[in-house]
Design a protein that fits this description.
single chain, 143 residues, alpha/beta, Rossmann fold, 5 helices, 36% helix
């Protein structure tokens, strides 16, 4: 597809540090000919190193992706805004009427990892959510 015919999707999360970064990475990797993917956060933090690590395990480099605020993308138009956490859904900024806002919540790996006994156990939470996000992204053309 030509660039102007591709869907533009924004993944929105609270910190734009983990889930939205993974979703953006998977979309760019798996659906680059169909979708222009972006991500942002309502309260951005730095990209989570564990998210970068588990994405590298499946051959996707998100190390150059930067956390962005919704302010950074305020002038962009999207076909879809997909909120990936409950907080982002509740605090989602207003988008033009032609933008469809969809919620698809995923568990928060950093929060789950807080209770982990070791690094490997922490990474298991990230891997599970990573794999769930991949399945979701693979189904995106059905939107």
């Amino acid at each position: 597809m030509e660039n102007d015919k591709r869907l533009k999707i924004l993944y929105l999360c609270t910190g734009n540090s983990c889930r939205s970064q993974m979703a953006e990475g998977f979309t760019r990797h798996l659906l680059k000919d169909q979708i222009d993917a972006y991500s942002a956060g309502v309260d951005p933090k730095r990209t989570d190193p564990r998210a970068t690590k588990v994405m590298a395990e499946v051959g996707i480099d998100i190390s150059r992706q930067q956390s962005k605020s919704t302010v950074d993308i305020k002038d962009m138009e999207f076909n879809f805004v997909i909120t990936l956490c409950d907080n982002a859904q509740k605090t989602c900024p207003t988008f033009p009427a032609k933008t469809s806002v969809v919620h698809m919540g995923f568990d928060d790996p950093p929060k789950l990892a807080e209770r982990s006994k070791n690094e490997e156990e922490a990474l298991e939470h990230y891997r599970r959510v990573r794999d769930e996000i991949k399945v979701f992204v693979e189904r995106l053309p059905e939107i």
